[in-house]
Amino acid sequence: MWKPPQRVKYKASPGGSWPSRQEASSAQLFEPLSFQALRLNERTWVPAMVPWRAEDDGAVTADNLDWYGRFARGQPGAIVVEATGIRDIPSGPLLRIGHDRYVPGLEQIVQRVREESKGYSKLFIQLIDFLSIKRRPAAEAYFGRFLKVRPEHAQAVGLDEAADEAKVRAHLMLLGGDELEEVLTTRELESLRYGYRERVTDMELEHIRDLPKQLPELFAAAAVRAKKAGFDGVELHYAHAYTMASFLSRTNTRDDGYGGALKGRQRLALEVMEAVLSAVGRDFVVGVRILADECIDGGSDLSDATAHAVALCGAGLDFLSLSRGGKFDDAKQPKVGEAVYPYTGMSGYECMPGYISDEQGPFGRNVPLAKHIRSALRNDSLLTPVVVAGGIHNFDQAKGVLAEEVGDVVALARQALADPDWFIKVRTGQGDAVNLCEYTNYCEGLDQKHKQVTCQLWDRDFSDGDPSRTSDGKRRLVAPDWRPIHIQK
Ligand SMILES: Cc1cc2nc3c(=O)[nH]c(=O)nc-3n(C[C@H](O)[C@H](O)[C@H](O)COP(=O)(O)O)c2cc1C
Ligand code: SF4
Predict the structure, then answer these.
(1) Is 489 within the bounds of a domain?
(2) Residue 397 and residue 250 in one domain
(3) pLDDT above 90 coverage of the chain, percent
């Protein structure tokens, strides 16, 4: 993963002091929140985290139930189930909601969270669409099979335009890096060096041209299934490297009314949201996660994000969750046989900042951006709750987000993975028992390798018996249970 060149090391800390039980009972963080269909018992949130626990066909496993059950025992205000695919197409061990057959499994997640949180935590599911991406090919495979040979390729290697395709392929295979740059287009070079990746701007492909026709219906059907399964709501994934974020991005140059200027880029996002809202009704929470900044050259910045936020919230959203970066555009070149991973470049760092950082540090990097976006909403009389994430791990930070009107809900992703009991510990005056995340991104490295995600603070701790383990038997799959020692007055 990319790291800031300054290489300043930071350590998460309790900040000032953890609140006593009494202080926590009057803290804004632990007050309920109500807006439109959204009802939270407190203003804390576990944002979506893919754990690589589903079946290969996208069905819910017992490990998925344990994963969400474990977060629920910590009783956060809300949990967002990982990015879940809205299409009925193979996508590896990631959850899917693209067919009614997924509903019973998802229902089990809902039941488990209700039981384990004693009905305290609300449960949302993140709905995602993504485009096709292939692993980086070996040069032999690329030139031997994948490259679509064009007459220009033949000419470039000194052959006749009508030369035998196999001969052209054999000649291309012999070219060095500089020569290839002359002969191949930018996209062909990218497919060779990073693996083929579709973009929303590939208008020559019918299924890409048709995305605006298909996606509103696909998202709406998925949201209806989420409602049937008993979730409290959905979060539409308009962030990071995926389809909807690509439509919102400044890099979207589509010329069919769904790209170009701001309004064109927002059009599909609004149409999808409207389709979802009308399919599920106003008693079901519909929120959106967007990027406060894409953090890539030529990408959307805070001004775009602010305009998107105003447009989406103005159309009736129940919450707006903010993330940052996480794009393919600046990702590291993968090894042959691996797929490019959108959290390996600078934008990836901004999404999940690690402990090796710059002068600004990894904690609360999204705070100024979120504050700007929220204040633009309020200036427009839009009261939509804003969910803020990014390096938040202690009570003072969380309190500050609310007190300084940065956001309305505080999200802890890696800190909740490091210690799922953060919420109940802090609320009951036992903050000093919190295990602080070290922001090493060990968990994120596992995600990159498509391995079951665990935390290094607890995954080799077998002191409580024989918990369920990863497929290689080396790591436990969920954090050990916490046994409260005392209740601080
Ligand atoms: C293992 C892992 C998986 C993640 N999966 C998702 C995901 O499915 N959807 C999403 O929007 N963000 C995902 N994220 C990003 C987090 O939701 C969050 O925005 C990010 O980690 C920054 O918050 P933090 O500093 O509290 O960890 C993931 C993060 C991690 C560490
Ligand atoms: S592995 Fe654990 S300690 Fe390290 S960043 Fe992930 S959650 Fe934090």
Answers:
(1) no
(2) yes
(3) 95
Best substitution site from 439, 446, 452 to test ligand 2's pocket, by max atoms within 8 Å of Cβ?
439
Reported in sequence order, the residue ranges of 204-305 that DSSP labels E, i.e. its strands, are 233-237, 285-291
Give mean pLDDT, residues 456-463: 96
Q: Tell me: do 350 and 431 sit in the same domain.
A: yes
CB 172: neighbour CB atoms within 10 A? 24
**Residue 316 domain flag:** yes
My answer on whether 287 and 431 are in the same domain is yes
Asked whether the beta carbons of 55 and 88 are under 8 A apart, the reply is no
- Shared domain for 113 and 186, answered yes or no, is no
271 and 162 within one domain: no
The arithmetic mean of pLDDT across residues 273-295, rounded, is 98
- Give the number of the ligand closest to the Cα of residue 455: 2
**Do 112 and 148 lie in a common domain?**
no
Residue pLDDT, tens place only, 184-207: 999 999 999 999 999 999 999 999
- Domain range for residue 169? 139-194
Distance CA 240, CA 168 (A): 38
Dist CA 23 CA 116 (whole Å):
26
pLDDT of residue 488: 46
Instruction: Give me the number of domains the chain comprises.
Output: 2
In a domain, 207, yes or no: no
Tell me how far the alpha carbon of residue 204 lies from the centroid of ligand 2, in angstroms: 42
Question: Tokens standing for 303?
Answer: 């001004």
Question: Do 105 and 169 fall into the same domain?
Answer: no
Residue range 325-337: average pLDDT?
96
123 touches 152 (CB < 8 A): no
- Within a domain: residue 41? yes
In this structure, the residue with its CA closest to atom 20 of ligand 1 is: 352
Closest-CA residue, ligand 1 atom 9, reads 48
Which ligand ends up closest to the CA of 420?
2
Q: How confident is the model at residue 353 (pLDDT cuts 50, 70, 90)?
A: very high
Q: CATH no. for residue 57?
A: 3.20.20.70
The pTM of the whole model exceeds 0.90 = yes
Residue 363 confidence class, pLDDT cut points 50, 70, 90:
very high
The rounded Å distance from CA 404 to ligand 2 centre is: 27
**pLDDT category of residue 119 using cuts at 50, 70 and 90:** very high
Query: Which residue among 125, 352, 449, 459 is best mutated to probe the pocket of ligand 1, counting the most ligand atoms within 8 A of its Cβ?
Result: 352
Asked if 181 and 255 sit in the same domain, the reply is no
Of 107, 145, 113, whose CA–CA distance to 229 is shortest? 107
In a 3-state reduction of DSSP, which class is residue 323?
strand
Task: State which of 179, 194, 209 marks the end of a domain.
Answer: 194
β-sheet bridge partners, residue 287: 235, 319
pLDDT at 260 over 80: yes
Q: CA–CA separation, 58 vs 98, rounded Å?
A: 9
